[in-house]
Amino acid sequence: HKHLLGTKGLSATELTSILDRASYWEEYPVKVSNHLQGRFVANMFFENSTRTRFSFEVAEKRLGAEVLNFTAAVSSVQKGESIYDTVRTLESMGIDAGVIRMKPNGLLAELAQKIKVPLINAGDGNNEHPTQALLDLYTMRKHFGHISGLHVAIIGDIRHSRVARSNLWALRTLGARVSFCAPAEMQAAELAEYAPYTTIDEALKADVVMMLRVQLERHEGSLFRSAEEYRAAYGLTVERAAKLAPHAIIMHPAPVNRNVEIDDELVECDKSKIFTQMSHGVPIRMAVIERALS
Ligand code: CP
Predict the structure, then answer these.
(1) What pTM was estimated for this model as a whole?
(2) CA of 136 relative to ligand 1 center, distance in Å
(3) Does the C-beta of 281 come closer than 6 Å to ligand 1?
(4) Is residue 7 part of a domain?
(5) Do 139 and 249 sit in the same domain of this protein?
(6) Complex ipTM, two decimals?
(7) Residue pair 238/266 in contact by the 8 Å Cβ criterion
(8) Are residues 183 and 100 in the same domain?
(9) Range(s) of the domain holding residue 258
(10) Cα(161) to centroid of ligand 1, in Å?
């Protein structure tokens, strides 16, 4: 079996084979197949989600798996049961794979040592969100025909972003150039050796402009006291979007704070791939679940 804990350490061959298998599923769409008939997959979300959770569920159902949905809010987690004990409990009932999202950093790697069934990371702390990066790379490859040589500028709350980290590792492995753009309090110093920090004007020259959700709740008392100030300094406004290269695309993992990191009018503009990214979540997660259970 194969865990998927992150994109860090995945080879170009492994990344490409997941993207290729997702292409297959997009090219030959099925409502429901019998690929994983009789296999049980548990979705274990210890943190909120809309896109990741439901696209995993759609992917599992299209593959014909039996789907178990665990929700922390109505579980014995409320009585103090730990994440480890919860996952062990589901494992002891005979699940074949687990999809897991959680807040703590580092816990997933520990769980993966102790749990025998394959675990797929659906986002852990600010560490990794590998299936998001895979669907982002899939979107870029489909649009440009390649990933190698692209310049991807990731703008916003890098420090708290697992999406930025998973994209950074995967994009570098496949030969793209990544740059970051963020105010000081949203920068991650430990990533500076892999991606330079640039001004917003430099970032607007990229082939892919990837906006991140500003987690404003985490920045009380920081440089930006309001969403308006953030938008003025780092937001993708209509005025800034007019400076993008003709071939450039706009991405955002969502959920979106409209009129904070990206203007309302841009969310569904011609250059925006935001809802396309979401639709690619299903074939990517089909490929990832198959890989885990193959
Ligand atoms: N992009 C993403 O992970 O969205 P959710 O938190 O809604 O799953």
Answers:
(1) 0.97
(2) 13
(3) no
(4) no
(5) yes
(6) 0.98
(7) yes
(8) no
(9) 130-277
(10) 12
